[in-house]
Amino acid sequence: MTPRVSPPSSKPPHESSSPALQQPSSPLPEGHSELLAGHVKVDVAWVNENINISAKYPSEVGSKSLNLRSQTRFCFCLSSKERCRARCQTANLLGVLLGRRIRMATDNKLRFVTSMLEFPSGAGNISALNAIILGEALASEENDLVFPSDDFARQAHVSSPQQYFEMYKSLHALRISTFAKGNISIQWFKGGLTNICYNCLDRNIESGNADKIAIYWEGNDPGLQDSLTYSQLLDKVCQLSNYLKDVGVKKGDAVVIYLPMLMELPIAMLACARIGAVHSVVFAGYSSESLAQRIIDCKPKVVITCNAVKRGAKVIHLKDIVDAALAESAKNGISVDVCLTYENQIALKREGTKWKEGKDVWWQDFVPKYPTTCEVEWVDAEDPLFLLYTSGSTGKPKGVLHTTGGYMVYSATTFKYAFDYKPSDVYWCTADCGWITGHSYVTYGPMLNGASVVVFEGTPTYPDAGRCWDIVDKFKVTIFYTAPTLVRSLMRESNEHVTRYSRKSLRVLGSVGEPINPSAWRWFFNVVGDSRCPISDTWWQTETGGFMITPLPGAWPQKPGSATFPFFGVQPVIVDEKGVEIEGVCSGYLCIKNSWPGAFRTLYGDHERYETTYFKPFAGYYFTGDGCSRDKDGYHWLTGRVDDVINVSGHRIGTAEVESALVSHPKCAEAAVVGVEHEVKGQGIYAFVTLVEGEPYSEELRKSLVLTVRNQIGAFAAPDKIHWAPGLPKTRSGKIMRRILRKIASKQLDELGDTSTLAEPHVVEQLIELADR
Ligand code: WTA
């Protein structure tokens, strides 16, 4: 990967009034923000008092630097700091004056609310008042409002819908860029220099938090713990940054990280960011083939891994997987100079690790010898920060590219507001850093806010289903963020696994990755949170960088299963098949109408695919790939993917990826994969497989097909069901009718619809017959 913007680093930032950032001394280049006609225009700057990014922001008035010390709680600035401050003060005042909430306490915390007259969600006018009847008589989730307690709301950053509304409006009233037709080029804070590692570590240390715990680490085996303060974390990050520089990693170079949830994983991410290198974390559950595919695409200078990891009682030899991936990449002409390997002694001693002198380097032998200080590489706000591959509707994963400044402001701000973060919180997100959630809400968002973060290496049900609550009590976790899959799997076990722990420290819960069904929501709320902790059901994507539709826990009465309302500055719209916005109560395709700072900027090496996938389906909008309904109160209900992506346990898997793995099996002629409802995983993978002529079905072959997918993608993508298919339902032009396959898979046989237009209508009957073979 070549550096995109690489001016030589300027002097350290400490002398400037906004510490994280050097203001370029010369005026900004003409037109740096007024992008070329037809491009996305960004004319609003986001500023949060906690984040030091200077935005030389564009406006009709000309560029001015922002006073980052302003006392505003949260503001979006249009043209001058005075206007901005005035606007925010007015908003805060209005929030207090208008804080008119009608409340009626009940045992189960269901209350009564006036609905907003108008919501900023594209919902248009909504009927003035929804009378909410309390208690068991509630007919549907839509009418079920669960309020934050008075105590919670009182201390929250945003304490009422009115306050949210005013804050939202203060931005919404401004001219916000839209995705104009034509080339999409998104830029935020371009020309501002910053460094996200500096903002995560140095800045917190300089503000007196050197001895605050940054990471509490809990190993796979209970009793195995460690921790790092912010200053200890900085030391370790600097040592690794120095090592990376020493082996030739420069600004703009890619580094692939294939590590389990050891502290070394966030350390490695931060070390790359510190020197301007672009990290690409690959989830350590991916197979060697998938890892090789990613290495070949981004051509890293270094791969960072560990020798092995324990998952539950099993030891997995990660280094062997990396070796196989590196061999495969070398065959494709991509050779990696260094494989830095952490010796994870708990799982495997170094003597048991296969080793290649010259290329393989033990982390412990080299990294600790480097100095604990390392100069920060100041990067442009639009320089790349990381690549993260995600599944799309073709077999080739997409390299989602995020840049620095906008992502930084967005991850920090969303973290603070959606979890109502306070410096005394202890925060735990169960996601792995191999996914976007681990980027934005294990590492960057929390650390930018100076939070103490729990990093957990193990599985939540090992040694038993009470593990999470044991960890919550041990570290006095106050904010717990997880996925519906985990909630559903724990729900199936006895509540005693939960109730034997105190969980008194908890105050906010969070959910992500897939729609949380109302019964799981209620269990999470009532059993885990003792009916006292609001749940932030955060809807977002790898592509969005941070939360897009999310409750603000002190502000919103919640509806179990709804992600509620857009975050500040986000304009979600629901469109019909023709791309026409629908107002009021409706269902349709979820799109975003405007640019937000955390948006991904491109798909690495394939800007055309970026535009085609996300901006072409509905011209003028970013298309999320999700379906969504909006109810009479303007609440958003995400209904799942509408493209060929399956969401298994909150992990995105493209049906095409699984299909191409299946057809690589010598005995498979054709495969079609669809998602089916799964009690725990949300969706399961259901594969229809046509064997090559003359091959008999057998249990052995079924296992071998599943194994092929595990080896090619990873265990998490293994099909739950192989359905033998002598033929597949196709149109006369040869297109597989997935709609019919979905109905067969979910046994909705009375909803098959018209099958007479199929090339061979009888295959449907055959498939139904073979369903249980
Ligand atoms: C789904 C994960 C409903 C959605 C952060 C989206 C959700 C995809 C929610 C992105 C939620 C994520 N409610 N659905 N709260 N959060 N999704 O890129 O289908 O791994 O498009 O990012 O997960 O998955 P990704």
TrEMBL record:
Question: Which residue range or ranges hold the AMP-dependent synthetase/ligase domain?
Answer: 209-595
Q: Which InterPro entries match?
A: Ac_CoA_lig, AMP-bd_C, AMP-bd_C_sf, AMP-binding_CS, AMP-dep_synth/lig_dom, ANL_N_sf
The source organism is Salix purpurea
Q: Which Gene3D superfamilies does the UniProt record give?
A: 3.30.300.30, N-terminal domain of ligase-like
Q: Which UniProt keywords apply?
A: ATP-binding, Ligase, Nucleotide-binding
| PANTHER family for the chain | ACETYL-COENZYME A SYNTHETASE, ACETYL-COENZYME A SYNTHETASE 1
Protein name (Swiss-Prot/TrEMBL): Acetyl-coenzyme A synthetase
One Pfam family matching this protein: AMP-binding_C
Biased-composition ranges, Low complexity, are: 15-29
Q: Which family does it belong to?
A: Belongs to the ATP-dependent AMP-binding enzyme family.
Q: Per the database record, which ranges form the AMP-binding enzyme C-terminal domain?
A: 657-735
What molecular function does GO assign, one term? acetate-CoA ligase activity
Location of region: Disordered: 1-33
> Domain of life of the organism in this record?
Eukaryota
Mark out the compositionally biased spans (Pro residues). Answer: 1-11
Known catalysed reaction(s)?
acetate + ATP + CoA = acetyl-CoA + AMP + diphosphate
